[in-house]
Specification:
Porin; eight-stranded antiparallel barrel; mainly beta; flat; eight-stranded antiparallel β-barrel; 16 strands
Amino acid sequence: MSISAQDNATLEANVFRGNAIPHDNTLHHLTTGIPKGFILSWNKHTNGEKTWQARFNYPDIGLSILYQDYDNSLLGYNASLNGHYNFYFFKRHLLLRVGQGIGWSSRPFDRETNPKNIAISTHITSSTYLMLNYKKRKLLDNIGFQTGLTFTHNSLGSIKAPNKGINSVLFNFGLFYDLSAHKREFIPLKEKPLLDKKVRYNFVLRGGINEYDVVGSGQFPFFVFSGYVDKQLSHVSGLQLGADLFLSYFLKERIEYEALLEESRTDADTDFKRASIFAGHELYINKLSVISQVGYYIYNPFEFAEPYYFRIGMKYYFSKSIFGALTLKSHAADAEALEFGLGIRL
């Protein structure tokens, strides 16, 4: 049975209301309001034509527009465009959506007009949201409803200070309309044996710009050289073990700045380089994968944060050997860098 891509989709509208969550003690003045807004979505169904679709229980691929009014004059609103996946559980009644995109903040930090907004420093922000919903189809013909919780996060990975970021937990309710003219037919999964059983060697160069938390200190480039081995355990899961070398020039500037302060114990000649070991996991979806890593510094002469860090993000395989990566590195809830990477897997 042939179904056009336009028919094999749903249109969806959700409204939400909730609370901004102060993940840092300095953010309480920004979380006084009751955020509200809406999410408009287009979801394209999959039916198992590609093996990964059946492997992940026939997810949706979609686009969504998210508008959030923070009900706080210092924050204003954020509007974003996101790509997302919908994953389904419990006979497709439970929906987990993972969305990532780019947003526009109406009231970023400004020294003169908005100095108290230490959460968002630029109009352009990253946008991340998670949605966990109960979904009921065929409430009335092709109309269904869904309800549950949505988590949103907006920041820009310390590209410019200040950048504490802002998180919200929201209750949402929505309706959707199924454009499909026919009952969906799923192609059963015919899993092939795992072909890649070798230990693979990866080399990645990451980079970008960031600014440490002194406003006006300037933006500086950084570079990260990574090497690691990975072992694919299944069609969807793999483990990683490796090391990072960090050249963060904002840290060099910070060392020089702190060395000038009265009663400072910082030596201006302190090495700004850092080295670490890390362990990680990779979730393979299709050409896209999700990585999560935990690292520990084994060389860190200037200790400006915790001795451990987290990295989470996405990889896209241009070929079997070449991949790109977009990752966020953080120390607990404090983002250090939004990293753009290019790597090779041998």
